[in-house]
Amino acid sequence: MKSPLYWLCALLMPLTTHAMSVLPQTAAEQTVTADATASAELVVSQGRLKDGSIQTRFLFRTIEAIRGTVPAYFEVYAPGGIYNGSAKADSRLPALSTESTYLLHLQINDAQLAFYNGPAGISPLNTVDLDALRTLASGLDAGADLSPFEAEPMTMQFSVSSSGLLDNSGFRRFNSPDRDEPIPVYADTSTLPSGITELQALSALSNALAAWEANSTILFNYSGTQTFSKSAEDYGSVDGLVIRVQFHDTFNHIPDNSTTLGFGGAGYYLAAGNGGTIDGSPFNPISFGYIVLNHPKSSLSNAVTLEEVLTHEIGHVIGLAHSSETSNESDEDLSEAIMYYQAHGDDRGASLNSYDITTVLKAYPRNTPPFSYDRVLYAVTYPTGTLTNPEVNQVTITGFDLQGDALSLQVDSATESNGTFSLNASTITFTPDGYYGDTTVSDPSSTAYARFRGRLSDGTNLSPFIEIRVVGFRADSQPSGAPDGIPDSWMNTYYGSPNGSSASADTDGDGFNTLQEFQLGTDPTDTSSAFKISQFSSNTLEWTTQAYDLYAVETSADLSDWQTIQIMSQTSSETTLSITDLPAPSLGKSIFYRVRRSQ
User: Fold this and answer.
1) 20-29, 412-421, 525-534: segment of lowest average pLDDT
2) What whole-number distance in Å separates Cα of residue 126 and Cα of residue 136?
3) Phi then psi for 490, rounded to 5 degrees?
4) R_g of the chain, CA atoms, integer Å
5) Average pLDDT in the chain
6) Residue 402 exposure: Cα atoms within 13 Å on the Cβ side
7) Reduced to 3 states, what is the DSSP secondary structure of residue 69?
8) Looking at residue 325, what is its pLDDT?
9) Cβ count within 10 A of residue 334
């Protein structure tokens, strides 16, 4: 029986959320420049949606107003947080715990109360000299009146774990590097820090990206410059998996009086495990990232400091928290990390230390998690007898791993409506519990009559969840008592009768029998309708497809040892897929390509 495989041979010669980069400032210096300073206890934090963007509301109980008029309870807002199943990690969002007490430096920003310099404006109450601050404040002006931000008392926590990443509710990472796919990075250089040329800016960005790539498995692809029509953080995931780096803050997202040099963050889905599970820790998948720099700050006019700040913010984008938010940190490994909350400004540039490298490898280890793809199934049902071609109701999970590890499939769950799933190695069989007429769910991309969920394991790490969805049923009554797995409606379409052709017949003489033509979605009566290469050039390969099928593009130098170069799933109603930038052969050698459809 001919395998549904088609190949073309051709000869060609030739990587915890939190906090932004800030200039070092003491608690006394911040008391002078902030609008108000108070000690307070965090009562509750809660996510909300404002103007399409997620932010977190913090409710505090005042302990003491040190400078300014501060009500008994007041609310402060910060970008980022969790709301309605989605999340946004932003370096301006502090990691605070309810019932803990803090010294807060506050500012009024866009008719809301905000943390002055984000997390850098917050200190655990037991780490500051309150008497000295009281004495200092007595010689200053009265400060701001925060009465408009008074709130009624109400209860969520957001914390950074000791791993340097977010805790188990918020570990996040890009999982595209597990597929050897880089993350596109766009830069807005339309306005730059004083004295910085575009060449210097892009060189700093390139070095910052390279530092994380060299010490983990994360991959980036600088995709060019764009002039963003709004702040980088406001784009969200509208244009897919992209990191946007804005070398300016002309949209005024950073208050003028702050010492913030820049902020960075990412949006991610609250789907722990769908970003892969690494050594037992489930990660959420990141959907987009952003960085905004405070271009008027003179420190950014130094190209090496600019490079340091970019490296720090990229760390936030890819999932790292601060190494420490303690001023005068005594642990040198933490204070000297690129992820320390204060910029060092010591000409280190894009330099990672042991803390940074150890932490990033927790999210992007050298042993990457395996991966595969969701699949859909239109189950064939029959009234009596035994299905003579049971493979029509089977899906084989093809797993991939960049290190070539042996993989095993683990069952997570199954929603067995209208039938049951069974697993044999990596092949899943769905057995309908009755004879159903032709029907399809309204949206095969998300809804289903039955679902199977599992994950691939390489012995250490787990893939994101893989889902098999039964999205439709097709009735097959012929041959009577021994149905062949080809639906009556399909036979009627091409042959005018449910018995129009046998499953093994090759009606159009194209090398594929009737059953294979059904599985491939091709016309069994038309020789030109086939699973085939439809276009080939030195850098482009195109082939015919059907919706929701999975295809592997492979290459070989000898027609014996084949290597997968890309896996692609047809998620639309288009009838072709293509790949560009094909790998070139070694000098004086041949190279061959083929496309394989997974069952």
Assistant:
1) 20-29
2) 18
3) -70, -45
4) 29
5) 88
6) 17
7) strand
8) 81
9) 19
Report d(CA 342, CA 423) in Å as an integer.
53
Q: Which residue has the tokens 């969805």?
A: 469
Instruction: Say what the pLDDT of residue 565 is.
Output: 83
Strands 53-67 and 73-79, by their bridges, are antiparallel
Helix (H) or strand (E) holding 363: helix 354-363
Q: Is the pLDDT of residue 513 over 60?
A: yes
Going by the DSSP 8-state scheme, the letter that residue 591 receives in this structure is E
- Map out the domains of the chain with their CATH numbers: 5-12+532-597 (2.60.40), 21-149 (2.40.50.120), 174-363 (3.40.390.10), 375-485 (2.60.40)
Pairing of strands 284-293, 243-246: parallel
Q: What are the pLDDT digits (tens) for 457-497?
A: 999 999 999 999 999 999 999 999 999 999 999 999 999 99
Cα gap 2→10, rounded to integer Å: 22
- CA 185 distance to own-chain centroid: 14
Phi-psi region of 528 (alpha: psi -120 to 50; beta: other; left: phi over 0): alpha
**Rounded-to-integer distance, Cα 270 and Cα 189, Å:** 32
Q: What's the whole-number mean pLDDT along residues 336-361? A: 94
Contact 86, 284 (CB under 8 A): no
**Helical H runs in 10-86?**
27-33
Closest CA to 165 of 229, 96, 86, 89: 89
Question: Residue 318: which H helix or E strand, with range?
Answer: helix 303-318
**Helices and strands in the chain: count of H runs, count of E runs:** 8, 32
Q: From its phi and psi, is residue 51 left (phi > 0), alpha (psi between -120 and 50) or beta?
A: left
**What 3-state DSSP class applies to 103?**
strand
pTM of the model: 0.76
Q: How many CB atoms lie within 10 A of CB 85?
A: 8
Do the Cβ atoms of 233 and 293 come closer than 8 Å? Answer: no
Q: What DSSP assignment string belongs to 251-302?
A: T--S-TTS-EEEEEEEEEES-TTTT-EETTEE-EEEEEEEEEE-TT-GGGGS
Q: Of 429-433, 494-498, 578-582, where does mean pLDDT reach its minimum?
A: 578-582
Region of residue 562 (left: phi > 0; alpha: psi -120 to 50; beta: else): beta
- Report phi then psi at 33, rounded to 5: -95, -20
Q: What is the DSSP letter of 81?
A: E
Q: Mind listing the pLDDT tens digit for each residue in 157-169?
A: 333 344 555 443 5
Whether the pLDDT of residue 153 is over 70: the answer is: no
Extract the tokens encoding 597: 């459809």
Q: At 598, give phi and psi (nearest 5°).
A: -80, 140
Q: How many Cα neighbours within 13 Å face the side chain of 246? A: 26
Q: Using CA atoms, how far apart are residues 226 and 190, in angstroms rounded to an integer?
A: 8
pLDDT(517) > 70: yes
DSSP secondary structure code for residue 239 in this structure: T
Cα separations (Å) of 265 from 51, 131, 241, 295, 376?
18, 36, 14, 18, 34
Decide the pairing of beta strands 21-22 and 260-269: antiparallel
Instruction: List the structure tokens of 285.
Output: 């998948």
**How big, in percent rounded to 5, are the helix, strand and coil portions of the chain?**
15, 35, 50
